[in-house]
Amino acid sequence: MANDSQEDRFDDLLEDAAASESRPTGRTSGWKRVFTGNRALWIVAAVAVACLIAGMLAGRFILSPADAAANADPPAPGLITVPVEFGPLSNDVTIRGEVGYADAAEVTIDTADVSGPAVVTGQVPAVGSDLGPLSVALEIGGRPVILLPGDLPAYRTLRFGVSGPDVVQLKSALAAVGIDPGDQGSDRYDAATAAAVAQLYTAVGYPAPPPPEGAEDAVRAAQDGIRQADQAITAARADLAQAGAGPSAVEVREYDNQVGSARRQLEAARAAPEPDALTIADLQDAYDLAVLRRQQLDLPVNTSGQRAGLDSAFAQATAARTELERAREAALVHLPASEVLFLSQLPRRVDAVAAQRGTILTGPAMTVSGASLLLTGSAAEADARLLTVGSVASFTLPDGGTHSAVITTLEPGENSDSRWSITFEPDPLTAEQIYQLQGQNVRVSIPVGATEGDVLSVPLAALTAGPGGEARIEVVTGDPREGEDAATRLVVVETGLAAGGYVEVRPIEGTLEPGELVVVGE
User: Fold this and answer.
1) What is the pLDDT at residue 1?
2) Which of the ends of the chain has fewer CB neighbours closer than 10 A, N or C?
């Protein structure tokens, strides 16, 4: 089989050799072989040359719109016109404002007088909640931290007898929440103030703080002292009354009997058959003494001792009552510094809370700010002097609408080159708007001059001066595209407020209607 394949291959070689001997030779046969052997290549080359020629012809005779416009003749000049506007016109001061809650402050509670660890035991406020007067900001060790309006911090426990500006602030705060604190002109914490503080705890639903240790025992001891003093007074009065009444009939009769008996004994001794001088002398002394005692019953009674005893009893009672008053004052309701929180500009919004229930309070408990949203911005002095507190402004809402606000403060800068600080209070906002606006920078416009209602207005460029200096405008009555040949009329006007490149106009000679075209250039 191998030999057969080798024979076939040899026969093919002989055929190729015979064919080559039979092909024509020379240059013509060579070119013919080139064209016939590469026919597809030559066809592609011919098509490419044809496309090149067609493209050159198209580029010469076909133009783009831009080239056509560039090569075209310019249009005939026409009038530049603007329609007459009709509506309110105002001149505004425009600034950027930051939206946020004002007066952010860290709340620190004095826990020095808390017995034991200052553990947060109650519900802490949620971020975003509002704290107003009589709110319980926290609960520490089962006791409330009551929020009251005021600027001074609570730096000491207020109890009976103390005085100072913090007492004045407490009384003002109590009056502000509807609790009568007594004499507000006094800076002393008195019984009326203590009674008001007791009402304060009732209002927030907590019992008043217990009195200091030993205060109730002191009250009971003072009450016992008063009872003993009253008993002593009763006894002294009885002694004095008895002493001042003089001897009784029984006492007089008894002393008379003593005198009579002594006299009879003396007479009997003298009448004895053998009188004894010594016995008689003794009996004479006994008689004289009985007579002297009887005579003393007729003398005025000396009650100085009884009166001294009564005075001593009264002094003891006075001291006991004074001690009772002091003990009761010491037991009056007090206000620990750890149970009150004074903040200005209530209500306040809770921005952040550091205190956690079940933990010991250390450092600031929370951060609060003003509960109402404010806009704050600044303006150059020249613009700020055009503004006044109470002016109405408008600012842009996130949805593209506008909302009103009122200027509440205008504060000059520290020097003449500084910008003025401006605070705005927005009109009531929805919860969603507040959420969207907080922390945003918005555009604020404050009108500093405005027309009363809708007016006609035209661009300042539309005004020209007449031969007498009067203001006039040129109103187009024909086709503005006709340029200088367009039909127009002149209207003499009186100008008013100018703002935003426009000016208020009132026709004096001629008529002017909204939407009519006025010439501002050619």
Assistant:
1) 43
2) N
